[in-house]
Amino acid sequence: MQDPALLQEAIIRALQEVxxxxxxxxxxxxxxxxxxxxxxxxxxKIVMTLTSAFCPAAQHLPDDVKKAVEKVPGITxxxxxxxxxxxxxxxxxxENARIQLGLL
Length: 104
Known about the structure:
This protein is α+β, with helices and mostly antiparallel strands. The protein has one domain: 2-Layer Sandwich (GMP Synthetase, Chain A, domain 3), CATH 3.30.300.130. The protein has helices at residues 4-15, 27-30, 61-70, 95-100, and strands at 33-38, 43-48, 77-82. It starts with a helix and ends with a helix.
């Protein structure tokens, strides 16, 4: 049994290593991750979006997320769900992302 809060923190760190190839900011800071759920058995579910339904990274970004989270010690399975509800917009950018992109 794992502490879900500690696993979630480790998942967030793993997601901060995944980048949309067109934007020099990690997907967590971009606000593409809508929800992270993890239980004591190490089963994780990630709900994410893309910057647009026509994003060129749409084919591989969810797989990159799955692979990154699978590497987290204590994670036994990963489900990645892509949603466009609500659609992503720039208001989801973290302050750090805004600084990196020169928007502040």
